[in-house]
Structures are given as structure tokens and as C-alpha cells.
Amino acid sequence: MTPPPLTKLRLRIVECAGESGGIRTESVFCPWRATSRAVHACRTCPHFELVDREGGVMVCAREPAIAPHEVEELVLTRRIHFGVDALTKRTAIGAVSWTNVLCASGETTVDTVEALLTCSNAHGVVLVDEDKRPVGFVSRAALSTERDGDVGACVETPFIVVDEACPVAEAIERWVHERQRVAVTVDRKRRVTGVVTDLDVLRWLGRLARGVHH
Ligand code: SF4
User: Fold this and answer.
1) What's the CA gap between 14 and 116, in Å, rounded?
2) Which of 47, 88, 110, 59 is nearest to 196 (CA)?
């Protein structure tokens, strides 16, 4: 019997600073449910295979119908041939947001946030309210100009909030229309699940274009 196809989903750390000890969750974007899932929740799913932390992926063995995220994998392994334009319409922005995420309340000190950022690849810190909904974004560059005080007092970078199930093509349209470069992705309850910059999307498109054209 042919074994089920495996899909590698990128692991992402979502970290909330400023609480007693902080909360750290490993998550992936599940393309079939079109939502982010904590890895510990995936472990109870019948499709869960394994976590490869060294490779930065979780392996899932759900039988596709071609799922949006899997399209990327299939293009890169040249098993299907879609144009990049079609891919941006089929792929959810949540599947592209694989950078780690650091969240904090505005009262968290700059020192605390900087210490956490040194061991993270997060783009900056998402300021959240008590329900973990985004209210601001402070980039690494803006943080590095501050020495004291609360992160809420730092100069904020403008950003847009996008549902993580939104197709990449629509997210790009909003970026261009609102002239922003950072998108904070949220789940159905508007809680932060990821951060994507225009450069992240360009890198993703570049990888796909290589898969499509070579
Ligand atoms: S293990 Fe289940 S919930 Fe997790 S990504 Fe795979 S199909 Fe989705």
C-alpha cells in the first residue's frame, strides 16, 4: 500500500512576554483547517506524524485534496505546475508567516523585550491588549533606539491586521492600498498568530518562481 503523502509545516514560536514567566507556544498553520494550531493540539490529531525541531518543521500526513500550503511544497518539488499568480490566490497568508512572534503588553519594559528578541528571529514586538489582540507594532530598529521605559512608549511601526486565512494576493493588495510593509495575522478571534513583512512575501515568491520556472 502506498504510504500517505507527508506535508512539512513550518514551526513558529509565539511568545507572550510580560506575564509571570511568559507564555511560549509552538504552532503551525494548518492548511486544511485554515487556522493556526498549537503543536500540542496537533498531537491529538490523527494526521500528526512528528516534530522535527532541528529542521524547524512539523510533519503531517493528512490526505490531500491539494491544500493551500501543500501547493508550495508540490511546486518546489516540481510535481505540479501552477503560475505564481495562481499560487498567491490559493495560498493563505498564514502559511507564509513562519517567523517567530513576540507579543507584549505596552507596560513591558524595553529591557525585557530586547532580551527576548536576542534569541528570536521575530521582526519586532506586537503590542497586545488583555485578550491578545494586536494594538501596535514596534520594530527591532525602533526598539534599538530606546534604552529605558516601557515598550508602549516606543515609536510604533504602522501595520495592517489580516485574517490568517486571507489569500496572499488579497493581503498584497491591502498592503499596496494602505502603503504599509508589515502585516500582523490573526485567527478568527482576532488573536495574534503571526507577523509577515513585504520582504517575507518577496522571498516566498522568489522561491516559488524558481520552482515554477526551473
Ligand atoms: S496534525 Fe491535524 S491539525 Fe495539525 S496540521 Fe495536520 S491536519 Fe492540521
Assistant:
1) 12
2) 88
Instruction: Give residue ranges with CB within 6 A of ligand 1.
Output: 9, 28, 30, 32-33, 37, 42, 45, 47-48, 60, 62
Pocket test for ligand 1, best of 8, 27, 28, 35 (most atoms within 8 A of CB): 28
Q: Which domain holds residue 9?
A: 1-214
pLDDT at residue 102, as a whole number:
92
Give the pairing type, strands 160-163 and 182-186: parallel
Query: What's the structural domain count of the chain?
Result: 1
Q: What is the mean pLDDT of each run of 10 residues along the chain (214 residues)?
A: 71 79 85 91 94 92 62 60 71 87 89 84 90 90 77 86 93 88 93 91 79 48
Q: What is the 3-state secondary structure (H, E, C) of 175-201?
A: HHHHCCCEEEEECCCCCEEEEEEHHHH
CA–centroid distance, residue 109 to ligand 1 (Å):
36
Global pTM value: 0.82
Looking from the CA of 206 toward its CB, the CA atoms found within 13 Å total: 6
Percentages helix, strand, coil for the chain (3-state, rounded to 5) are 30, 30, 40
Cell of 158: 504602522
CATH code of 163's domain? 3.10.580.10
**Three-state DSSP class for residue 87:** helix
